[in-house]
Amino acid sequence: TISALRLEVARLRRQTEEWQLRNLELHQAMRIANATGGSGTDGAAERILEVAKQQAQRDEELMGARIQVSELQGQLLEARELHTALKERCADFERQLARTEHGGGLGRSNIEYLKNVIFKLFVLEDGLEKLLPV
Q1: Which pLDDT tens digits describe the chain residue by residue (134 residues)?
Q2: Which of 10, 58, 105, 121 satisfies CB 3.0 to 4.6 Å to 127 for a cystine?
Q3: Quick check: 49 and 63 in contact, CB under 8 A?
Q4: What is the DSSP string of the chain?
Q5: Is residue 62 a contact partner of residue 12, using CB atoms and an 8 Å limit?
Q6: Which residues have C-beta within 8 Å of that of residue 5, sequence separation ≥ 6?
Q7: Cα pseudo-dihedral 36, 41, 42, 43, rounded to 10
Q8: Can you tell me which residues the record assigns to a coiled coil (predicted)?
């Protein structure tokens, strides 16, 4: 996607340069028409019309490119936010894993305690009352 954006920007720059060259040609044609006394005004008017059409087309392309850029910037912002959220979630999981690894003995002792309580409930006649310390 980034390489596609770079290609699009390069294409737009080339088109801008072409437009600038055509604009220069138009100004030169107008100077020549004015210098000859207006005999080439029909040709100059046609050239002006042609360049105006080209400029309108380029303006449309430019607007489309600007819209695309703004959409891509929005997508980039969303992707960055998602990336940040995923990094935070990953860090949370790593902390939780570290706690589990360091507290592995605690988890085993909890299971051992639960096993002993259940065993007492089954073995003792009145297990529930004898388990309650009073």
Answers
A1: 666 667 777 777 787 778 778 777 777 776 776 666 655 567 777 787 788 778 878 888 888 888 888 788 878 888 898 999 999 999 999 998 888 777 655 566 778 888 887 887 777 766 555 555 54
A2: 121
A3: no
A4: -HHHHHHHHHHHHHHHHHHHHHHHHHHHHHHHHHHTTSTTHHHHHHHHHHHHHHHHHHHHHHHHHHHHHHHHHHHHHHHHHHHHHHHHHHHHHHHHHHHHHHTHHHHHHHHHHHHHHHHHHHHSTTHHHHHS--
A5: yes
A6: 72
A7: 70
A8: 69-96
Residue-level length of the chain: 134
Tokens of residue 104, six digits: 């592995």
- What's the one-letter identity of residue 99? R
Q: Return the number of other C-beta atoms located less than 10 Å from residue 41's C-beta.
A: 14
- Cα of 102 vs its chain's centroid, Å: 38
For the whole model, what pTM was predicted?
0.44
